[in-house]
Each structure stands twice: as C-alpha cells, then as structure tokens.
C-alpha cells in the first residue's frame, strides 16, 4: 500500500499531538484515504531530547535534510513566529509539497502570497488550526460562502483573555489575580502580552478577513484594545446590569470598506457570545440568508489543534478541488 509521507516542523505540544493522532487513528485514515500516513521526518531544535522516537524517522535540525527527502507529500508546520516558518513553507510549496499550518502570526501576514505560490505549484494549504483550534470555523465559513454572503463576524478568538474575564466576573477577583491563575493552570504563557492586548485575536481575525472578503483592512487602521485596564468595579457594574465584558473581534464590510476591531465589549444576555465562558472560543457568523449561527469549541491545546491539522490532511488527500487552498477564498462581491 502506497503511503502518504509527512514531516513535522516542530515537535512541541502541537507537533507531539499530530504524531499522537496520526499514530492512534491509522485505521480510520486508511478507510478515508486508502493509504497509511507515515511520519518520515521531524524538525527539532535539540535532537538529543527526542531519542525515544522510532529509528525510521529522520530527526534533524536541518530543514534541507527534510525537504530533499524523496516522495515527501506534506509538511505539518507547528513553529512559533514568522521566521523561519515562512521560509520553510515557501520552500516546501516550491518543491511541490502540500503544507498544513497552525501558525496564525505568520499566516495572517502572508496568507495571500503563500496561496498564490501554492496555486503556482499545484499544491494545497490547510490552515484550519490558525483561527480557533479544533473548532471547524473555516470549514463552516467555506460552506456558507457557497450561496450565503457572510456579512459580519463577531468572535471570541483567545481563550486566555476569555478565561481571565470569566474568572473576574464569576469570582469577583481582579485582573492581576485572574492572570496569575491563568498562568498557574497553563492557560496563559509566561509572557501573555499577545493574548491580553488583542494581538492573537487580531491575527486570527485577519485570516478570517482574507477568507471571507478575499482582502484585509489596513492593519494600522484596526483598533486593538486589550483587557488589562478592566477593573473589578467595571465587571461588577456590568453584572448589575445583567451584562458581561467579552474580548470581541469584529469584522464587517461597510460599503467598499472593511471595518474591524478587537476590544472588550459589553454584551447583553441576548447576545450569542454572552454565555461563552472559560477558555472556549466562539464565533457568531451573520450571513444574508441563514442569519446568525454560532460555533463554540476549544480554541487551543494539544489535541484540538492536532485534530484540526489532521482533518486538513484528510481534506487535501481525499478531494481535489480546483482551488489550491482546501479552504476557498472567494470574492464576496460576486456572490
């Protein structure tokens, strides 16, 4: 039986999750794809830390050693930061290798150029994991784009900030205490700046903008406000009025202009995102026919993110759409 040969770029939490899912679900993958999926190489920073990996897997710090492997079909990219991830994926696409990424920072900035390169080289890009982890936001929007015109997105796209606001609201603690608790539970990084100042949600919003509108607003014009200045008094006043603060990413089209914002907003109990608490992500999608639908699920974590990336793998090798992203970018004006 011919195998799909895959490489992992990065072997942290997400990379290990991909390895685990592929190993434990080979039978299901064979049913879906008619082939086994074999990890043939893993890019790591320190090979000596991964001596327990099977001997048939190339474990290396050198990307060239991976990309020159014969019959490599796909790379899973789970590296933090813009570089060297962008260079690696660009090289992979040039070599005719499919790519699947979870790198929201890099993809928000370079989605357009990477998709063009994929088209040029007749390969595909999977990026479901860049927006809401294991929650199938992108696939749902893709389906809506067939007939519906998406008019507006309102979303909670960062589990750390959502956890902090939930803790402040439910237990009347201040921001500093809630942040320390989030770190202790592993919901916040040692440096949580990108989560609490809205940068993470902004990057995800720009990816959704590219998907929905085939364009992005000028980044410098998008207002981005964090949650660190919210006080216990603010939270209590909201509760007294049966409202909650949520860190919301919004994008919509006004005439020919894309409008976007990431900021703490006061939501009433009738809002679809009002009851989204803890570390969950959610996205309320408003379209011209179906109205508003809301997706809720885990936004990050080892298995949710790995799940999204393996689902992308299946979509790439199970179907052969004309578009060179497995998630279609369309011109909304044509709908």
Which architecture of the largest domain would the CATH scheme give at its second level?
A: 3-Layer(aba) Sandwich
Largest sheet: 6 strands, parallel
Strand order of the largest sheet: 3-2-1-4-5-6
Spell the H/E element sequence: EHHEEHEHEHEHHEHHHHEHEEEEH
Under CATH at level 1, the class of the largest domain stands as: Alpha Beta
Distance between the termini: 43 Å
The chain-level structural class is alpha/beta
| Overall average residue pLDDT | 92
State the helicity in percent bands.
Answer: 25-40%
Structural domain tally = 2
**Inertia-based shape:** globular
CATH superfamily of the largest domain: NAD(P)-binding Rossmann-like Domain
Residue share in β-strands:
15-25%
What's the tally of helices?
13
Number of strands: 12
Binding site for NADP(+): 10-15
Domain Homoserine dehydrogenase catalytic: 136-314
Catalytic activity: L-homoserine + NADP(+) = L-aspartate 4-semialdehyde + NADPH + H(+)
Protein name: Homoserine dehydrogenase
Question: How would you characterize the overall build of this protein?
Answer:
Strand 5, helix 5 and strand 6 form a beta-alpha-beta unit. The protein has 13 helices and twelve strands. With 335 residues, it is α/β, with parallel strands linked by helices. The chain has two domains: 3-133 and 302-334, NAD(P)-binding Rossmann-like Domain (Rossmann fold, 3-Layer(aba) Sandwich); 137-298, Dihydrodipicolinate Reductase, domain 2. The strands form two sheets. A six-stranded parallel beta sheet has the order 3-2-1-4-5-6, sandwiched between helices. The protein has a six-stranded mixed beta sheet with strand order 8-10-9-7-11-12.
């Amino acid at each position: 039986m011919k195998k799909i040969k895959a490489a992992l770029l990065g072997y942290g939490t997400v990379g290990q999750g991909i390895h685990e899912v592929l190993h434990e679900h080979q039978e299901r993958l064979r049913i879906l794809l008619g082939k086994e999926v074999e990890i043939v190489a893993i890019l790591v920073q320190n090979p000596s830390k991964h001596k327990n990996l099977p001997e048939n897997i190339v474990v290396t710090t050198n990307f060239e050693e991976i990309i020159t492997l014969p019959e490599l079909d796909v790379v899973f990219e789970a590296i933090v930061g813009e570089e060297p991830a962008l260079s690696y994926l660009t090289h992979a696409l040039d070599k005719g290798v499919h790519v699947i990424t979870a790198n929201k920072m890099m993809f928000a900035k370079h989605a357009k150029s990477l998709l063009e390169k994929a088209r040029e080289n007749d390969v595909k890009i999977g990026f479901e994991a860049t927006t809401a982890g294991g929650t199938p936001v992108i696939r749902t929007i893709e389906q809506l784009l067939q007939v519906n015109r998406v008019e507006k997105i309102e979303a909670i796209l960062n589990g750390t900030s959502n956890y902090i606001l939930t803790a402040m609201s439910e237990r009347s603690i201040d921001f500093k205490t809630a942040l320390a608790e989030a770190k202790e539970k592993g919901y916040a990084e040692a440096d949580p700046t990108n989560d609490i100042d809205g940068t993470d949600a902004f990057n995800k919003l720009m990816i959704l903008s590219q998907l929905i509108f085939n364009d992005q607003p000028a980044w410098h014009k998008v207002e981005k406000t964090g949650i660190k200045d919210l006080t216990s008094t603010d939270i209590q006043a909201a509760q007294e009025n049966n409202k909650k603060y949520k860190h919301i990413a919004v994008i919509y089209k006004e005439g020919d202009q894309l409008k976007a914002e990431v900021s703490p907003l006061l939501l009433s109990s009738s809002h679809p995102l009002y009851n989204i608490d803890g570390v969950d992500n959610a996205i309320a999608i408003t379209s011209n026919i179906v109205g508003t639908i809301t997706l809720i699920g885990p936004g990050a974590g080892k298995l949710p993110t790995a799940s999204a990336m393996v689902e992308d793998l299946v979509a790439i090798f199970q179907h052969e759409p004309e578009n060179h992203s497995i998630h279609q970018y369309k011109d909304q004006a044509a709908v």
